[in-house]
Amino acid sequence: MIGRLVHRYRWAVPYVLMAPGLLWLVAFFVVPMVPMILFSISEGTVNTGIVQPPDVWAIGNYPEVVVKFQDNVRNSLVFGALATTLCFAIGYPLAYAIAFRGGRYKNLLLFLVIAPFFTSFLIRTISWKVILGNDGPFLAVVRDALHLVPANFSVMGTPLAVVSGLTYQLLPFMVLPLYVSLEKVDIRLIEAARDLYAGPWRPRGTAIGAALGGALAIALMVGLRYADPGDPSGLVAAAGAALVGGLLGGLVAHFLVTEAFVRVVFPLSLPGVFAASILTFIPAVGDYVNADLLGVSPNNQMIGNVIQNRYLFQTDYPVASALSFILMGAILLAIALYAKVLGTEELTGGRA
Amino acid sequence: MSAIDVRLVDVTKSFGDFNAVDHIDLEVQDGEFFSLLGPSGCGKTTTLRMIGGFEQPTSGLIELQGEDVTWLPPYQRNVNTVFQNYALFPHLSIFENVAFGLRRRRVADATIRQRVTEMLELVELPGFEKRKPNQISGGQAQRVALARALINRPAVLLLDEPLGALDLKLRKQMQVELKRIQQEVGITFIYVTHDQEEAMTMSDRIAVMHKGRYEQLGQPEELYERPRTRFVASFLGICNLLQVDPDGSADGYAVVRLADRTPLRVPRALVPGANRLEIGVRPEKIRLFERVEDAPAGSNLVEGVVRDASYLGVSTQYIAELRGGEKVTVYEQNVSHTAHDSLYRQGETVQLGWSPDHTFVVGGGETSAQEEAS
User: Fold this and answer.
1) For the segment B199-239, what is each residue's pLDDT rounded down to a tens digit?
2) What was the pLDDT predicted at B147?
3) Residue A346: its pLDDT value, please?
4) B interface test, pick of A185, A189, A195, A345 with most B CB neighbours within 10 Å
5) Residue A200's closest chain B neighbor by CA?
6) Are B172 and B249 found together in one domain?
7) Taking CA atoms, what residue in A is nearest to B150?
8) A194 touches B at CB < 8 Å
9) Residue B318: is its pLDDT beyond 50?
10) How far is B245 from chain A (nearest CA, A)?
11) B27 contacts B53 by C-beta, under 8 angstroms
């Protein structure tokens, strides 16, 4: 009886399967969006009384908050992008090693990657406060033992602290999708590439590696505000960092990266790179816990901090809502640009 | 005598305690179609992978055109491989797949375009440049894999069961095709297969491998007509093996006797001494006669009783039981026996006759060709 019914209404099966998820999203995502949109063009606070459409159409909220909180928007995008890039730089080799060299320890290694999730997000962030603190182990090594930084150098309360925290928190989001895509790559394709004269990537790769390493170093120096591009001493610092980064990138590309990887494995892992970057970037941009606990100073606050503050403490729903939509728009725009770059035929399907 | 293209000197490959390849010596000549034939696990693929550079021998030496390449990585060897499952790059077009090797060698774009076009014509896939590997059939993928390897004009082309994934009809067609292409380009082919018919169809010479060594190496006819071991005899088709004792000689042949004293003649050169030995004869060499007088003079003749007769269309397969209990398979061409009721029936006594020259002698099956030589 039921079997006959299912057979008769086969076309409905996918809808039935999708229904719970769709209903959930409609109830808890789409529906709340409506009052949020309305709030975002309203005026006043909960405490003083909110004036909503149709009594007022405060479209001006949007340009106003962008101007007012531009530093926070910039912090969000910069910290988010840097954390995603660092996650990628750390996570890709890790995922590669687990996928291709993990052997029988694959599952154990993957478990270790997600192990931090077994403790609370907050506890982990607070423990980073200890690690990065002025009396913490990080500075004990870098400042006191190695004298790599001046005696008055501190990490807590700087962009470095925020980005470090974000990178740590989001690493599993980067590693898991990368692992999945790398694991699917047929080892025989690497053999085929080697058979077809794909050797070490040098000397071309050495130059590309050096350029990428240098660029990442400059991005970190400027993004973490250790080098001000407008200031001559900042330029010197950036150049120094670029030199170190370029050297490291060049060495890695020269000795570790092969043409088989560049021409075959990496292109085949691009869907994973795309998924992993988005899964990392979105929570990174919207995060406020790291900026709050590790960033401390108002200079390091991200857009999430402002939203949290406006919603929970100032009950300023219009500004908070407008900021939320701007954050959403910024993320969508960034992803669209990224998809455009990564999704093109030249990168995934073009010449080898 | 043409030049030696590939030489393996006392090559061994061990995985732990297991010798996948066990002290092999091989010489493959320039322009030869050479096959490594054997069941799975016999070491043929490992041998091929060592020539390709994907494995390093535990001991021994591999030379390519006189140069020691034992420790060179694959990308520094003038050798290309057609992989078992083609291993086409799924993200690249057919054009880029074929061009891959030339691009790595920094060949100019115009030359690449010209050579890829030529190559796709050679494998009869012109106009496929823009397709992706998932948009072509298995047979076409096979041709692309071949083109991708051949375009580099390697000294040696290694083929690892390249036709294994194709259906029978396509496989037959590709066998002819492969042979044509090999003759056209004149490159040495080393071909790994477990299919004896495939190896015989295409090869100039075949090494029959078993347990990490080759039991016999020679031309297809030689291996089929004069197998030297029981393994080679039974791997290259059906054969009847009989235990016999040598008993002098007659008319230039060695005489041997079955357990029931029936005399049989064997080419004298094949009988090494006076010890008990095993002789063999292929089912299609044997003919059945009603009476002894019907058989051509000088035939080996044994009396048997038909135990089974199956009509196969082109031939009829009989199982005859000899007096000593040995079961002998016979294929009779259906030339005269066109009507079904004219076949020999079960229980009928028949004379099995074959030419002494079609008789071969196999060793115990334990000693290999190399051991005999050393």
Assistant:
1) 999 999 999 999 999 999 999 999 999 999 999 999 998 99
2) 95
3) 46
4) A195
5) B75
6) no
7) A196
8) yes
9) yes
10) 52
11) no
Please count the other Cβ atoms lying within 10 Å of the Cβ belonging to residue B190.
26
Residues of A in contact with B83 (CB under 8 A): 188, 191-192
Residue A351 in contact with partner chain B when CB distance is under 8 A: yes
Question: B159, B193, B228 — which closes off a domain?
Answer: B228
Q: For the segment B115-134, what is each residue's pLDDT rounded down to a tens digit?
A: 999 999 999 999 999 999 99
Contacts of A268 in chain B (CB under 8 A): 90-91
Residue B149: name the closest of B108, B178, B169, B109 by CA.
Answer: B178
Domain of residue B350 covers 232-362
**ipTM score above 0.90:** no
| Cβ contact A263–B83 (<8 Å) | no
Q: Cβ contacts (< 8 Å) between A198 and chain B: which residues?
A: 75, 100, 104
| pLDDT exceeds 80 at position B367 | no
| Pair of tokens at residue A297 | 């100073």
Please provide the DSSP assignment of A157-178 as one string. TSHHHHHHHHHHHHHHHHHHHH
- The candidate with the shortest Cα–Cα distance to A121, out of A305, A287, A300, is A287
At residue A80, the pLDDT reads 96
Same domain, B205 and B258: no
Q: Are residues B328 and B290 in the same domain?
A: yes
The pLDDT value recorded for residue A24 is 95
For the question of whether the overall pTM of this predicted structure is more than 0.95, the answer is no
* CATH of residue B306: 2.40.50.140
Q: How many helices (H) and strands (E) does chain A have?
A: 18, 0
Question: In this complex, do A349 and B103 lie within 8 Å of one another by their Cβ atoms?
Answer: no
Map tokens 């774009």 to a residue. Answer: B109
- Look at residues B226, B239, B232 and name the one whose alpha carbon lies nearest to residue B209: B232
Please say which residue of B170, B202, B228 terminates a domain.
B228
Among A188, A264, A348, beta carbon nearest to B83: A188
Q: Comparing A15-19, B86-90, B112-116, B296-300, which segment has the lowest mean pLDDT?
A: B296-300
Please name the residues in contact with A341: beta carbons below 8 A apart, sequence gap of 6 or more.
A347
Cβ neighbours, 10 Å, residue A159: 23
Amino acid at B309: A
Burial class (CB in 10 A: 0-12, 13-18, 19+), A208: middle
Asked whether the beta carbons of residue A267 and residue B91 sit closer than 8 angstroms, the reply is yes
Residues 6+ apart with CB under 8 A from A236: none
Residues of chain A predicted below pLDDT 50: 345-350
How many structural domains comprise chain B? Answer: 2
User: Do residue A188 and residue B75 have CB atoms under 8 angstroms apart?
Assistant: no
- Residue B364 — pLDDT band, cuts 50, 70, 90? very low
Query: Any idea which residue has 């982990």 for tokens?
Result: A124
**DSSP assignment, residue A23?**
H
